[in-house]
Structure formats: structure tokens, C-alpha cells
Amino acid sequence: MPNLDTGNTGFMLLCSSLVMLMTPGLAFFYGGLVSRRNVLGIMIQSYVSMGWTTVLWFVVGYSLCFSGGKGGIVGDLNMAFLNGVTLASPSPLNDTIPLIVFIAYQMMFAIITPALITGAFANRVTFKAYMLFLTGWLLLVYFPFVHMIWGGGFLAERGVLDFAGGIVVHAIAGVAALASVLYVGRRRGEDGGAHSIPLVALGTGLLWFGWYGFNAGSEFRVDSTTAVAFLNTDLAASFAAMVWLAIDWQRTGRPKFLGLLTGAVAGLATITPAAGYVSPVTAVIIGCAAGAVCYGAVALKNRLRLDDALDVWGVHGVGGSLGIIMLGLFATKTFNPAGADGLLSGNPGFFVAEVGAVVLAVIWAFAFTWGMLWLIDRITKVRVDEAGEAAGLDESIHGEQAYEGAL
């Protein structure tokens, strides 16, 4: 048996559960943002990832991310089907935690990441095409970036840090969302927008709550860095929410609840890569920057008439990338001796490595996402037909309705 620490192990099981809860939270968040006739269509895309991504993770995902491939782009298949995993296998990052717990925790990250993308092409992609996309995107984008940064791969050997997924989760998902929007095109006609802001609020609450497991759990033990990651998560979310609310209020003349909720998620996404590497004061700065910059990104998207339905690029793509860049600026070993010092602490090399990783992530995620959608379109139609879109995906694809008389 490993040198088991019951406190660390219990904490990581709790964090795994919290991250799992984020995917239903995302489903509610997105479900409230679409029209009544598309609620189930968007929610099932999150829930099906809980099933299918788990299957892929068991078969090849964990192995491709964390087995072999030192210094490379992707791992090997030596641990496919969790081959060799026993009760005595220790976690690679903390040998007081069983490997089984580490596998479960990382699996929850894999589940939610592709689900984030679905908000961009809401209401207009067939379910068959989505299932192919989910499979291909995990294999060609998500698994390689997990390996390159967290699995001892190419970027890790160049000193790139990403505490809980600024690149591995948010940046690549946000850029994939942008590529999806450009490929699939705009929705036909007017969708009607958010049908239930209370559902969005419920989803935001679940996401915010789960994010403590997402960020604090990424320390893989209970110590002072865990605590600062927890606090930084809340500080960034809160300050971003208030900045977004203030800007929106000033521009529209009304304090919008939806703006407050969106700002909070932007702050959560932006602090994710830096949560365990920066001070609480820096988390406040990152939160304020997230509220302003992500608001500006969404405004730019609207001016360019890009139909990113639920602002995945502006919130997650821009937020995750901004967080990595600010990590390169503000990282300090004062708050995490196992981390790095950033540009403002006299280490320009670390800043360059972080910016370079963002550039690679943007190019890789955009190219592979566009290419996959093009290939899937050759196999099965990606976009729903005009009649199906007009009727709504709930009825035209799934034969179900969220609300009686939703049509």
C-alpha cells in the first residue's frame, strides 16, 4: 500500500466530487441561457460528456495523458484500460494519495472541458456530429495538452506552469469555440436569448462552489498553498463580478443580474492557472482585469457579429489566456516555493514561456477544431437543417420538451 495520508486522500475525493458537480452546473448555466425549445439540446451535451468522456478516459485517456512520453506531445498506451493500476499504486504528484484518486480527479477535468465548447454552437449542431467532435477533440486537443503541461511533456520541460487549467481547460476550449462558430456559422433568425436567468444563477452557484475543488484541489494535498488557492478563487470571482456589473451598469443604465453572473465565471476562469502561484492581492488584480477584459472581448464579439451564442470565447478563451499571461507577470515563490517567479519578480524567461504556451495553444486548438469539423462534415452533417433549427433541437433531434408547450 502507498504511504496513505487519509486527510489528503479524503480531501482529494471531496475535490473530485466538487469538480464532477461543475458539469451539471454548466448544463444549468447554459440551459438557462438558451431559448425554451433548446434547453434539453444544450444540457444533454454536458451530461453525455459525463458518460462518454469517462469511457474514453478509462480506455485510453488517462494513459495518453500520464503514461510515458516524457518531453513529448502525448503519452503512450501502456496504461490503457488502467492497466497496472492497483490499490498500492501511488499518485505521481503526491505519493500519499492513491493513484486511483488521481485518475478520478483528472477525469472530472476531462469531462467538463469539451462541454464548455458547446455554448458557442448552441442550437445548431446535430447530436451525431457532436459525439464525433467530442471524441476527436479529446484525442487530438485535450489529451495532448494535458500531457504536455501536466504529464511531463513538451511544455512542462520548458518550465510552463498552469495550476488548474488556464491553458489545459479554458484557453483551448475557448479557442475551439471560436473556430466552431466560424465554421458552423450564425444561427438562422432570432433565438430569443436567455429563457431563465434563475437557471443561469443556479448553474453559476454550482460552478462557483465546484471551482474550489477545481483550484484548491490542484495542489493535491492540504497545505497553505491549498488555502491560498481557495481564497484567490473567491477573490478573483467576486472582484470580476463587481467590475463586470459596474461596466454593464454604466453602459446600459441598469444593474444586470446576468452580467454579474457572467463576470463571476470570467473571474473564475481567469484565476484558474494562477490560483496557487500568486498572492491574494494579485488575485484581486487578476479579478479586476478579468471583469474588464472579458467584458471587452464579449463586446468585440458582438460588434463583429460572431455568433458565439453563450460567449465561450470571450469568457473562457480570453479569460484563460489572460490568466496565463498574468501568471507569467505576477507568479511568486513567496506564495508557492514549488512554483516560479514571474517577470515582475525578475524572471523574464518564465513570462516568455507562458506567453509562448498560449500562442501554441491558440494555433493548435483552432487548427485541429476547424479540421475536425470539416472532416466530420464529410461523414455526417454538422449543422441541423433549417426546419430542425426553427423547431428547436429538443423536439427535432431528441423528441422531448423541457416545458409543456415549449414549441
CATH architecture descriptor name: Orthogonal Bundle
Kindly state the percentage of residues in helix.
Answer: 55-70%
Report strand %: under 5%
Q: What's the alpha carbon Rg, rounded to whole Å? A: 20 Å
Task: Sketch the major β-sheet.
Answer: none
What fold name goes in the CATH topology slot?
Ammonium transporter fold
Q: What is the CATH class?
A: Mainly Alpha
Number of domains: 1
Low-pLDDT stretches are none
Write the CATH homologous superfamily. Ammonium transporter AmtB like domains
The overall average pLDDT, rounded, is: 96
Give a count of the beta strands, DSSP E runs of length 2 or more. 0
Q: Structural class, judged by helices and strands? A: mainly alpha
* Count of runs of 4 or more consecutive helical residues: 13
Backbone shape = globular
Q: Which helices and strands appear, and what pairs or packs with what?
A:
Blueprint: H1 6-33, H2 39-66, H3 99-117, H4 127-150, H5 166-184, H6 197-216, H7 224-252, H8 257-271, H9 280-303, H10 312-330, H11 348-379, H12 386-391, H13 393-396
Walk me through the structure.
It is a single chain. The chain has 407 residues and is mainly alpha-helical. It has one domain: Ammonium transporter fold. Helices cover 66% and strands 0% of the residues. It has 13 helices and no strands. It has helices spanning 6-33, 39-66, 99-117, 127-150, 166-184, 197-216, 224-252, 257-271, 280-303, 312-330, 348-379, 386-391, 393-396. Helix 3 (99-117) packs parallel to helix 5. The termini are far apart. 57% of the residues are buried. The model has no long low-confidence stretch (mean pLDDT 96).
